[in-house]
Specification:
The chain is α+β, with helices and mostly antiparallel strands and about 220 residues long. The chain has a domain of about 100 residues: 2-Layer Sandwich (Alpha-Beta Plaits). About 55% of the residues lie in helices and about 20% in strands. The chain has six helices and five strands. Strands 1, 2, 3, 4 and 5 form a five-stranded antiparallel β-sheet that branches. A hairpin with a 5-residue loop joins strand 4 and strand 5. Helix 4 packs antiparallel against helix 5. The protein is rod-shaped. The N and C termini lie far apart (about 100 Å). About 10% of the residues are buried.
Length: about 220
């Protein structure tokens, strides 16, 4: 038994072309089916393009921005949640930083103690048999909460005594740093060492107030 196969009707492109040539723009209702469908499809495509160009593209850009903002807000939420979860640990860490800062601050002399500190530096050198040829404090450089005092120093002695002097300076209860060290041969077989010793002191309340006022003045000037 043979089954009849349904055959697709053949498309007559010549007839379709002829239908398009005979179209009457004043009587659209009489147009053949294929020209009607083609024109409607073309109008649909044009409307889609216009809609995309005039409305949808802008809305999609806004949507993309909002999605980026959403991701950013989620990340911020996660970071803040981590901080909230570890808040007690952060507080303990902050307390430890405050204690460490307080311990360092105690190593800075106040204005009235600076003279005693300079004497200690001088005595540390004399105690090692070093001879001071120059010991000249410079101008203070005021920072946020402390002042830095450079001291130009030139001493003569042996290399071993220089090392012992540096060790003694490191053991002082106050912070003193030795910078720009240069050693050269001196007279009578001794060595000469040039350096800049820097010591620091914290500012008193009046100096802190003045420092803040100067910063505010500079800010207004800008």
């Amino acid at each position: 038994m043979k089954l009849n196969k349904t055959q697709m009707p053949a498309i007559d492109f010549n007839q379709i072309a002829a239908d398009f040539r005979r179209l009457n723009s004043n009587d659209v209702g009489t147009w053949p089916l294929i020209p009607k469908i083609t024109v409607l499809f073309a109008i649909f495509v044009v409307l889609l393009v216009l809609g995309w160009w005039l409305f949808w593209s802008e809305q999609l850009d806004v949507l993309s921005q909002k999605q980026d903002e959403e991701v950013k807000l989620k990340n911020e939420y996660i970071e803040k949640k981590k901080i909230a979860v570890n808040l007690e640990a952060y507080r303990q860490q902050l307390d430890e930083i405050d204690r460490s800062f307080g311990a360092l601050l105690k190593q800075l002399p106040n204005k009235s103690e600076m003279e005693a500190l300079l004497i200690e530096v001088n005595q540390a050198g004399l105690g090692r048999g070093l001879q001071f040829e120059l010991f000249r404090p410079g101008n203070e450089a005021v920072k946020d909460f402390y002042a830095e005092l450079p001291i130009t120093v030139k001493i003569t002695g042996s290399y071993h005594d220089f090392g012992a002097f540096a060790a003694d300076i490191a053991k002082l209860p106050r912070i003193v740093t030795l910078n720009d060290i240069a050693i050269a041969p001196g007279a009578n077989g001794r060595l000469s060492m040039d350096m800049v010793a820097k010591t620091f002191r914290y500012l008193d309340e009046s100096e802190m107030t003045e420092q803040k006022s100067q910063k505010k003045g500079k800010g207004r000037g800008k």
